[in-house]
Amino acid sequence: MMPDSHNIIDTSLEVLYEDNHLIIVNKGTSDLVQGDRTGDVTLPDRVKQYLKDAYAKAGNVFLGVTHRLDRPVSGAVAFAKTSKALARMNTMFAEHQVEKIYWAIVCGCPKEEEGTLEHYLVRDGQKNKSFAHDKMVKDAKRAVLHYRTLAKGDRYTLLEVRLETGRHHQIRCQLATIGCPIKGDLKYGSPRSNPDGGIDLHARSLRFIHPVSKKEIYITAPVPNSNLWQVLTKDIVGN
Fold first, then answer.
1. Residue in 10, 31, 70, 200 annotated catalytic
2. Is 19 annotated in the active site?
3. Is 1 a residue whose pLDDT tops 70?
């Protein structure tokens, strides 16, 4: 049973998909998937409130986090509404059975229109930053991604990124390493920040086999409303 559209619910929450076991929302660049020292309201808190209001639920609402996006990143995030779905989705993400596609607006453009990047990343916990190396070094983890160019502007390029591994700040670090930091990402070399404090990295789509129904689920998240996103994606179907 889906929510009654006449109920007063959080209209700013963009629900991309919902059934009895899962809910997928389009995260904004200011949303926290996991609480931090700021104490700001988290996206799971908002989704729980949405479910509570939409279904007039009394008491606590179960909601499980299946994966995370960095705070300044936008796009599709999946949550589990049942413990069965949570356990199975956690396993699927851990075993790379979920296809995640990202779109990134980067400064400049890569030398090649498409390619594969392989680095060895070392995470600095104090700086909350990863550093890339060409060869294995102490405490490094192998990181592989595949990219292709979708559109080009005068100063920026829109890339599609497919992750083969899932490392801390992997996309941000690897693209910066080839001289193409993500727009707005000061931490990794972008010359200036974005007005909303976010970066132009967007979790564009999720594709996976539903943990309960076993049907294929494919969800795309509309890109942010900024002028640059709209210009670079205007010729791409279903943006």
1. 70
2. no
3. no
